[in-house]
């Protein structure tokens, strides 16, 4: 009986040692923030958001410097990164512009909208011990005629000594809010573009 108990304890210890680490999942949702009442108007779709090919994967990719990228097997995005970015940016543009009818692309049951933001993320770096960096180009189009109403570029970084992926993602959220504020400016300056009627 004593041998069986010892054998069972040894097997339990061996299995515990073989258990893989728990995966952690990250999102980019913006916290609810008090702001002026937003106005509904023409539908503004935000997306698609294009990404560098190296980032089109469920795992977080860390920039280790010198061109070395490190895949974080157990640190993952909670959804495809391009969708997470479109959702975060649409929330930020709506909040910064006061336009309530800003939606992340694609939206089931919704056609192309009236206005559309297209975003090309040129670089998105999570750099342990150094912070985060984001470079993107965007343009705002009228869907009906394809006319480009506004365009811009964004290139900023946030220095941080953090090494943990969660802390680096928090720095990325701040950069995305800066990009959203830049994108919202034309809507604020030209209410005639999005007001219905």
Compact overview of the structure:
The protein is of the alpha/beta class and 197 residues long. The protein has 3 helices and 8 strands; from the N terminus they run αββββαββββα.
CATH topology: Rossmann fold
Oligomer class: single chain
Strand order of the largest sheet: 5-2-6-7-8
CATH architectural group: 3-Layer(aba) Sandwich
Please describe what this structure looks like.
There is one protein chain. With 197 residues, this protein is α/β, with parallel strands linked by helices. It has one domain (41-193): Rossmann fold. It contains three helices and eight strands. The chain has helices at residues 2-18, 81-97, 165-189; strands at 24-26, 44-50, 59-63, 69-77, 102-104, 115-127, 131-142, 148-159. Strand 6 (115-127) and strand 7 (131-142) form a beta hairpin. The chain is elongated and about 55 Å long. The N and C termini lie far apart (85 Å). The model has no long low-confidence stretch (mean pLDDT 88). Keywords: Signal. This is ABC-type transport auxiliary lipoprotein component domain-containing protein. Residues 26-184 form the ABC-type transport auxiliary lipoprotein component domain.
Topology:
Layout: H1 2-18, E1 24-26, E2 44-50, E3 59-63, E4 69-77, H2 81-97, E5 102-104, E6 115-127, E7 131-142, E8 148-159, H3 165-189
Parallel strand pairs: 1-4, 2-5, 2-6
Antiparallel strand pairs: 3-4, 6-7, 7-8
Helix pairs in contact: 2-3
């Amino acid at each position: 009986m004593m041998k069986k108990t010892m054998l069972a304890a040894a097997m339990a210890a061996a299995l515990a040692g073989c258990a893989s680490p728990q995966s952690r999942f990250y999102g980019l949702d913006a916290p609810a923030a008090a702001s002026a009442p937003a106005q509904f108007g023409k539908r503004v779709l935000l997306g698609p958001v294009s990404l560098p090919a190296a980032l089109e994967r469920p795992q977080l990719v860390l920039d280790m410097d010198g061109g070395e990228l490190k895949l974080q097997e157990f640190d993952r995005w909670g959804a495809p990164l391009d969708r997470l970015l479109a959702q975060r940016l649409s929330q930020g543009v709506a909040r910064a512009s006061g336009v309530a009818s800003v939606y992340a692309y694609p939206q089931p049951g919704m056609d192309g909208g009236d206005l559309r933001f297209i975003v090309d993320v040129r670089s998105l770096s999570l750099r342990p011990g150094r912070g985060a960096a984001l470079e993107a180009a965007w343009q705002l189009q009228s869907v009906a005629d394809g006319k480009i109403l506004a365009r811009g570029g964004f290139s900023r970084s946030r220095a941080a000594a953090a090494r943990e992926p969660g802390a680096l993602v928090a720095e990325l959220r701040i950069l995305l809010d800066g990009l959203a504020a830049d994108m919202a400016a034309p809507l604020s300056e030209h209410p005639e573009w999005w007001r219905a009627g």
